[in-house]
Amino acid sequence: MSNIQSYLMFEVLESSWRMLQEGIENAKNLDEIIVAHDAYLDNIINKGLMGDDEGSRSLAGQMNLVFDIADRFCAVQNRLFIDCLSEIDGQGRRMAMAQRNILEGKWGDDSDLGGNHHPDFNDSMNNMSGINGRMEDNEEASR
Question: Which domain holds residue 112?
Fold first, then answer.
C-alpha cells in the first residue's frame, strides 16, 4: 500500500502539480489557465488509473483483486496471531496451576487425569482445526 501511495503522491500528484504551475505561469489569459487546469485533471485521472479507457479499468480491477487477497491474508494472519496468543495464555495458566500443585505436593497438572484433557487444550485443538479450515478456504479463494 505504501508503494501505491508513494506512486500517487510523487509520480502523479507532484509531477502534475508542477505541470499545472508551469501552465499557469506561462498562461497569457484565463482560457489558457483553464486549459492548463483541465490538462492537470486529465493527467491525474489517467496516471492515477482512474481513466475511462480499457487499460485503466483492467489494471484497476487487477489491483482490486490483489488488494482483496492481501486483505484476506491479513485477516487470516490476525486470527492466527490471536489464536496463538490465546494458546500461549492457556499454557501459562496450566503451568501456573502445575506449579501450585507441585507446591501442594500434588503431581503437576492433574486436570487431565482419567484421560480428560484440560478445557483449554480442547479449545486450542478446536482453534487449530478452525485455522486450518480458514487457511484452506483462503487458498481456494485465491486461485
Answer: 63-143
